[in-house]
Every structure is written in structure tokens, then in C-alpha cells.
Write a structure and sequence with these properties.
Shape of chain B: globular
Radius of gyration of chain B: 26 Å
Largest sheet of chain B: 11 strands, mixed
CATH architecture of the largest domain in chain B: 3-Layer(aba) Sandwich
Number of domains of chain B: 2
Helix content of chain A: over 70%
Strand content of chain B: 15-25%
Number of helices of chain A: 15
CATH topology of the largest domain in chain B: D-Maltodextrin-Binding Protein, domain 2
Largest sheet of chain A: 2 strands, antiparallel
Structural class of chain A: mainly alpha
Distance between the termini of chain B: 52 Å
CATH superfamily of the largest domain in chain B: Periplasmic binding protein-like II
Shape of chain A: globular
Oligomer: heterodimer
Number of domains of chain A: 2
Number of strands of chain A: 2
Number of helices of chain B: 18
Structural class of chain B: alpha+beta
Largest interface: A-B, 62 and 70 residues
CATH class of the largest domain in chain B: Alpha Beta
Chain lengths: 336, 530
């Protein structure tokens, strides 16, 4: 019951946060001295034609009226109209959300599957050359920009060694659209070859996106593990003559990765931001690539819609992390 | 046991991910009957009556037909859906007779009603394509004379109207009307579907990735000889990825305006070929005509003499452009006088002109630091800006270089108070008539738009341009535009730097590319892969 009240409180706080986001993004996008109508009517338009279209799309009205109109549409679930594609922003986002989520989930899986073993090995081999190497690797994982890493991986694994495709989500036609998640749709279509093709396309972008996640989880696991391995119950287990693998897997691991698990929420945020660059390099048809396009073309409703979506995703992640933390440590509930 | 399982897993992994298997089965290697073309810009809307810039031509030229179409380079106007045309002596009424028996992809016959509906639809929707027609016609301008004849009645005589006709894609009026919702002229439906009569028929489309299309058996020119069975057009924004895709064979062609260093790389690669053609796309630096110091003719001439044209063309653009000879009009277009005196780099003359400017301007006006605006992401504009800045510094002038996104640059041109001091852009070929260049960039009616961003005005030039629009005989128009060039060039409102070369980049097995300025060679019907 207490936890339910906590969740409701967190949700209530998120409403003004979202409204603040809408206000800031709406007015910031209007401050940029661009005119999307001039893109819509093209280079050959005369000033009279530009004025006429500004009137048709409501850009001749004061900004605060445009804002009220936007809020009214938003209250009906309408995110507006993309002047660049002349289509509803909702339909644009619906198409692009599954590929982005698929990429983020793949990167998250890679981060956990690679980060935890790397952290454990580094802790167990503390201060050996292997530990130094893995620590250098984790620092590089955080420090290397995704843009550079992506291009390098493309060059090596796609152009020179030629084992992975350069980019995209699938070689030719994808599976019949069901969920929009290519992996799931290929499985549902019972098409093994297509599934393999989809996974091939997923590997390089997921690795590029996952690098900071692998590094973060490895570092937190290593430090958590070192702390746990020095605790009394581990010393006791050792003195009892229990084998090393049993101490590590059964007794130490669970306590050592608590800190890493709480990092996952933050890593998801990093991945959301990282998709902009990764999707651009690997021509991945997701929200990140869409955001880049609408920002560069001052497509107001496109900017607002995609920012709002990312904002909502961040809020959901934060609330989930807070709730998980509160579940682990109930004292947190009293602090709100 | 554990070891053998791990070994088996490693073998299986190695087997699946081996380069040979990957390249043979999964990576690229489309059959020769398929053609994959990548462009940096997404095709976000399939409606042929929305955008008039270059990327959507990959869809329009292959999926739709027009009354007349441009072919080859230098471009010729060829009857396409129309059989012939006739203009009234005053060039105000244009009558088109259609070929009989031509059909849309759904089997409906193409009739004059489809032409009428298409024109009305363009004008009512008022998007990019409409901007070329609105100054001269209203939505009811087209009348159906009989099933195969229609007449365009213009608001005023337009001598070059025929050159605009290829901009009007003819849509299947019956099909579009069936999908109309609350008087939207089928806009919502046509944004995601196709109602054309072109060589290829839409197979699949995804706004996030691109489209595929297949041969349409009913195509008017038939399918004898070598052609692609299927075409795919997709989006790869990053230049390096497009070039790598081409070298690897994942794609078979990309846009013809890659940066010079990438073109050089593709020319040296044995798996790729570059076909070079001089185009009508002009590149220039534009000077503010109403704000000092660039409002002063001597100041503008000083900059025109100072720019290092040869160095820019040879060293920065690696000879992928050619020097402009026709001033405001491209080299390969008629209308400019062959004896036109252009500006060559001459720092002595630049200094002399600057000395004259200094006398005529106040010290504050003369020494005001100027800002050169380049288009973000368009490297050539930044390089040209830096060259001009460097030469200006030698003359003792202070200039800053700033990069902005195209929409931001465009918005500033609406008002004389906000328009740029100096900015750099290209002028593409929308219709092939001198009016496309000189008629838009130096006419008062375009003040407050990109083309009129310098706010140039000369009454005599204005009269000549209007005369050029109205006149129907080529000889008169040639004289008119020559005279206009002779008046404009000495005033130096722009630095006419170069005409682009299109560098069609293909894998080495692609054949049959016919470049055309309108659409940038994106008509795939004549092409094939060996």
C-alpha cells in the first residue's frame, strides 16, 4: 500500500515536469529564427504565397495562441502535423519507436551479458595485467565517442572484413508488420533466415550503443565485487573450504551486482541519447534519426512530438528505477 | 565435455558469422535485375504534388508521367503523355492533345480530365510544386475540350510555359477521388500510395527507409532490351556510409553531388565508376544590395575581383565544377551573351575599386564587419566563405564566417532588415529556361524569398525580365536576356563562381545512365546492370 502511494506521488510530480518540458521545447523551437513554411512552399514561392500558407497553418498568429492551440490538440492525443512529411506526427513516431526500442533493448542485453562477467573477472584478477587491461577497456568504453566507434566498426567489420552489413535494419523486405520489432516479427513469421538477417543488422549498432553501458556495468560490478569479497561471510565461506566458483556465483554475485542493477536505469537514459548518433551512422530507421531530421529542418511539431516521447520515456525509466530502489530499500519511501 | 560443447558453439558461431557465408547470403549482393539507389534525404511523402526539389524525383520520374518530360543533357523536351501541343499567338492559351490508349497502373485510361484534376489539385494544395504555377494560373485554368484534349488558360502570356509542364505529374483522378477525405484532394491517401502511370509500380514503402517498385507490364514504351525488374530507393544520411555501401556493392548508385574527396576515392576504386556531366546548377556568393558597405557597387566589384576563382575550382573543388561564364545564367543554357565580361581574380583592380568605395561610403559604413553565412552540412559553401574571408583580409576588410542550417538561412531572407550581408547557395534547375535563374534572382517579385535575398532592383532589368516572360519567340527572348545580363554583371550583385558537374556514382556493373538536369538522372527505366 505504501509503495502504491509512493508510485502515485512520483506520477503526480511527473505531470508538471512534462508540462515544463512542453513549454521549454515549444518556445525554444519558436525562438530559432527558422520558417518551416518556407520549406513547405519551396524555393520558388513568392512572398504572397508564403504569407498565404502561414495563415493556413496558423503561423501568422501570436506564439502564445499557437501554444494554446497546441495544448488543445495535445489533450486529444494529437501531436500535430509534420510540415516536412505532411503527415501526422503520431504516425511518424509509431513507425519509428519499435526500431529504437529494439536497438536499446539489444544494447542493454549486451551491456549486462558483457559488463557483469568483465567486472567479475577484473575483480577476481585484481591488480594483474588482465585487470589493468579490462579497466583500460572500460575507461575507453566511456570515453570513446559513439560517432567514431560506429564508423570504425563499419570500416573494419563491414568494409574490410565484410562480415556484417553496413547498416539498415534488414537486407530486403522485412517480416509482415505485427509489432514493428523486427526480431519478434521474424520469430512470429517462423522465418529463420530472416531472423538471422535481422540479428546481423542489429549487432554493430547494438555494440556501438552498448559500449558505455558495458563499461559502466563492468566498473560498478568490479567495485561491488571487491567490497563483497572482503566481507566476513565470504572469508567464512573460504575458511569452510568452499570452491571459488561456488563462492563467486552463489554467495558473492547477488550482493555485488545491486549497485550495477540500479545503474541500468541511468544507462537506459544514456542509450536513449546515444540513439541519435548511432541511428544516423547505421541508417537505423528509429526515433533518433527522425529527431535529427526534424531538428535540422525546423519541423516544429516533429521536434515537439519526438522530444515529448523521449521525455515520457525518461520519466518512466526514472520512476521505475525509483520504485525498484524503494522496493529494495523501503526507507527511501519516507524521504518523498 | 564442456570443452567440446564450447568448441562446437565456437564452430557454429564461426560458421554463421564467416565472411564468405555472410557476403554470399546476407550482405548486399542483390540480383542483377535489382537496382538499389541511396540518397541522403528521406522521401517522407509520396504525393507528387507536394515537393519540387530533387530527391522526390526518384519517385515521380519512375512512378508517374507528365505531359512533356525532359530527357538527356543538354535536356530536350519530349512529348510524354501528350502527343503534341499548340500555343496561342500571345502565349496565353496552351492546348495539349494526349496520346490515346495510355493507362494508369490500375488500368484506367489517361484522359484530359486527369490533367485538369492534377492541375487543380496542385494549385489548391499550394505546396512546393504549386509555387511554380501560382504566379500565372488559377485553379480553374485548365478546361477539358474533349476526352484527349485540354487547354491551359493563363492569367497572362507566358512564353516559357511549356518548360514548366514537366513539373506537373498527372495523377489518376478517379483513384484519388475515391480516396478523398473531407475535401483533401486525396492528400492523406496519396502521401502513402501511388496513382501513376510510370514505368514502375509501387511495391512497398516505408517513410523511415524508402520504397521498392517493380516493372509495370502496361508501360507505354514496353520492356524490350535490358532493364531493372525491381528498383529500391533508400535513405543513408551519412556520406561515408553511402560511399562505403557503394564500394561494397550493397547499393548500386548514390546522389551525384558527393564531396570532391569522396568522388576521388570512388574514381580510384575498381568496384565503382563515376560518370561526370556538366550541369545547369549554379553556385554563387550573394551580396546584400541595400545595406552598406555591399550596397556600394565599387565595394561589390572589389569582392568580385578579389575572389580566387581558379584556386577554389582547382584546389578546393578538385575540378568538379567549372567556372561560370554566363553570369546569372548557366553556361549550358541559352540567353547569355557570349562576349560577356566576367570578373577574374585581380587584387590590383580589387584595391582600386575598394578605394572608390571608401570615398563614397562613410567610415562607419565602410569598416562595418560583415558576416558570410554558409549552409551547415554543405562543405562547398563553407570553403567558398573561407576563401572570400581570406582575400578580404588581404584587402583590409573584416569578415566573419558563420554556418547555419538551411531553414534558418532561408527565414532570414524574408525581410530586408534581416537578410544576410553575404551568403552562399546553389540554384538548381526546376524548369529549363533562363527565367529559372535570371528571372527569379533579379526580379522584385521575389524580394522576400530565397531568390530575391539580395533585394536587387533595377527598373530597366525588371522591364526586360517581364518582357522575357511574355515574349514567345526565342530570338526576342535571347536579345532580352542578353541585355539583362549586360546590365546585371557590372552591378556585381553576386559573385558567380561556378557551374556544378554531376558525378554520377555507380557500381562498375551499372549501364545506361542518362543524366538530365531536371531530376538529376533519377529516371531508372533506361538503365540496367551487367
Amino acid at each position: 500500500m505504501k509503495i502504491l502511494a509512493y508510485i502515485l506521488k512520483r506520477l503526480a510530480i511527473s505531470i508538471p515536469t512534462l508540462f515544463g518540458l512542453i513549454v521549454i521545447v515549444f518556445f525554444l523551437s519558436r525562438v530559432i529564427p527558422a520558417n518551416p513554411i518556407m520549406i513547405l512552399v519551396g524555393q520558388s514561392a513568392t512572398p504572397e504565397q508564403i504569407k498565404e500558407m502561414e495563415k493556413r497553418y496558423g503561423f501568422d498568429q501570436p506564439v502564445y495562441i499557437q501554444f494554446v492551440n497546441y495544448l488543445e490538440k495535445l489533450s486529444h492525443g494529437d501531436l500535430g502535423y509534420s510540415l516536412r512529411s505532411t503527415r501526422a506526427v503520431v504516425s511518424e513516431l509509431k513507425r519509428r519507436l519499435p526500431p529504437t526500442l529494439e536497438l536499446i533493448l539489444a544494447a542493454l542485453a549486451l551491456s549486462i551479458l558483457a559488463g557483469i562477467p568483465v567486472g567479475i573477472i577484473a575483480a577476481l584478477k585484481r591488480n594483474t595485467w588482465l585487470d589493468h587491461f579490462l579497466r583500460a577497456f572500460t575507461i575507453a568504453g566511456i570515453a570513446i565517442p559513439g560517432f567514431w566507434l560506429g564508423i570504425m566498426l563499419q570500416l573494419i567489420f563491414s568494409l574490410y572484413v565484410n562480415i556484417f552489413p553496413l547498416g539498415g535494419q534488414v537486407t530486403s523486405a522485412g517480416p509482415p508488420h505485427l509489432t514493428g520489432f523486427m526480431v519478434i516479427d521474424s520469430v512470429v513469421a517462423l522465418d529463420g533466415r530472416l531472423l538471422l538477417d535481422v540479428l546481423y543488422h542489429l549487432i554493430l549498432p547494438a555494440v556501438t550503443l552498448a559500449m558505455p553501458g558495458v563499461a559502466t556495468i563492468a566498473r560498478f560490478t568490479r567495485s561491488g565485487f571487491l567490497g563483497v569479497m572482503q566481507s566476513d561471510y565470504i572469508t567464512y565461506s573460504r575458511s569452510m573450504g568452499l570452491p571459488q566458483y561456488l563462492i563467486v556465483c552463489k554467495y558473492a554475485l547477488r550482493n555485488a551486482i545491486v549497485a550495477s542493477v540500479t545503474q541500468i536505469g541511468l544507462i537506459m537514459g544514456v542509450f536513449l541519447a546515444g540513439t541519435v548518433v548511432v541511428e544516423y551512422i547505421y541508417f537505423w530507421p528509429g526515433i533518433g534519426a527522425y529527431m535529427m531530421d526534424v531538428i535540422l529542418n525546423s519541423d516544429y511539431d516533429g521536434i515537439l512530438g519526438s522530444t515529448l516521447l523521449i521525455g515520457v520515456a525518461f520519466l518512466i525509466i526514472n520512476i521505475t528505477v525509483d520504485v525498484v530502489q524503494a522496493y529494495i530499500d523501503p526507507k527511501i519511501i519516507d524521504t518523498l | 565435455m564442456k570443452r567440446s560443447s564450447a568448441g562446437a558453439a565456437a564452430l557454429a558461431f564461426g560458421g554463421i558469422f564467416s565472411p564468405r557465408r555472410a557476403s554470399a547470403k546476407l550482405v548486399g549482393n542483390a540480383p542483377a535485375s535489382k537496382f538499389i539507389y541511396s540518397w541522403q534525404e528521406s522521401l517522407l511523402n509520396l504525393d507528387p504534388h507536394v515537393a519540387a526539389h530533387i530527391p522526390p524525383y526518384s519517385f515521380k520520374l519512375n512512378m508517374y508521367g507528365e505531359l512533356y518530360r525532359y530527357q538527356d543533357s543538354p535536356p530536350k523536351l519530349v512529348p510524354w503523355i501528350a502527343e503534341s501541343h499548340e500555343a496561342s499567338p500571345d502565349s496565353q492559351r496552351w492546348t495539349f492533345r494526349l496520346k490515346k490508349g495510355l493507362r494508369f497502373h490500375d488500368g484506367n485510361e489517361i484522359t484530359a480530365e486527369d490533367v485538369r484534376f492534377s492541375a487543380e489539385r496542385v494549385l489548391e494544395m499550394g505546396k512546393d510544386v504549386a509555387s511554380n504555377f501560382r504566379p500565372m494560373m488559377k485553379k480553374d485554368a485548365v478546361k477539358v475540350i474533349d476526352k484527349y484534349t485540354c487547354q491551359f488558360s493563363l492569367d497572362k502570356p507566358i512564353g516559357y510555359f511549356l518548360t514548366l509542364v514537366p513539373l506537373l505529374s498527372i495523377v489518376n483522378s478517379k483513384l484519388v477521388r475515391q480516396n478523398e477525405k473531407s475535401g483533401d484532394y486525396g492528400a492523406a491517401w496519396l502521401a502513402n500510395n501511388e496513382a501513376g502511370s510510370g514505368a514502375y509500380k509501387l511495391k512497398s514503402w516505408d517513410p523511415a527507409t524508402g520504397f521498392t517498385a517493380e516493372q509495370w507490364p502496361g508501360w507505354m514504351y514496353g520492356w524490350r532490351g535490358k532493364h531493372f525488374k525491381e528498383i529500391e530507393v533508400n535513405t543513408i544520411v551519412e556520406i561515408a556510409s553511402r560511399v562505403a555501401g557503394l564500394m561494397k556493392g550493397d547499393i548500386h548508385a548514390t546522389d551525384p553531388y558527393l564531396p570532391p574527396d569522396q568522388i576521388d576515392k570512388l574514381k580510384k576504386n575498381p568496384n565503382t565508376q563515376v560518370i561526370t556531366v556538366e550541369t545547369l546548377r549554379t553556385f554563387f556568393i550573394r551580396l546584400n544590395m541595400i545595406r552598406p558597405p555591399t550596397s556600394n557597387v565599387h565595394f561589390r566589384r572589389a569582392l568580385s575581383y578579389a575572389f580566387p576563382y581558379k584556386e577554389f575550382i582547382e584546389k578546393a573543388m578538385l575540378d568538379n565544377v567549372v567556372r561560370s561564364k554566363g553570369g546569372p545564367i548557366p553556361n549550358n543554357m541559352w540567353g547569355w551573351p557570349k562576349d560577356l565580361k566576367m570578373y577574374d581574380t585581380d587584387m590590383e583592380k580589387a584595391k582600386q575599386e575598394l578605394a572608390l568605395a571608401k570615398k563614397e561610403l562613410s567610415p562607419e559604413e565602410f569598416s562595418r564587419p560583415l558576416t558570410i553565412k554558409a549552409i551547415k552540412g554543405a562543405t562547398a559553401t563553407k570553403i567558398a566563405a573561407l576563401y572570400l574571408q581570406s582575400q578580404a583580409e588581404e584587402l583590409g576588410l573584416k569578415m566573419n564566417v558563420q554556418e547555419e542550417t538551411y531553414p534558418v538561412l532561408l527565414a532570414a531572407t524574408r525581410d530586408p532588415k534581416t537578410t544576410h550581408d553575404i551568403w552562399i547557395h546553389w540554384m538548381s534547375s526546376y524548369y529549363l529556361d533562363p527565367d529559372n535563374w535570371i528571372g527569379k534572382m533579379y526580379s522584385k517579385q521575389y524580394h522576400g524569398s530565397q531568390f530575391g535575398s539580395t533585394f536587387y532592383y533595377n527598373e530597366k532589368v525588371e522591364q526586360l525580365l517581364e518582357k522575357g516572360r511574355i515574349a514567345s519567340d526565342r530570338e526576342t527572348r535571347q536579345r532580352v536576356y542578353e541585355e539583362a545580363c549586360r546590365l546585371i554583371v557590372p552591378e556585381a550583385p553576386d559573385l558567380w563562381i561556378s557551374n556544378d558537374k554531376a558525378n554520377g556514382a555507380f557500381t562498375s556493373d551499372v549501364r545506361g545512365w542518362h543524366f538530365c538536369d531536371v531530376g538529376m538522372g533519377q529516371e531508372f527505366y533506361p538503365m540496367w546492370r551487367e
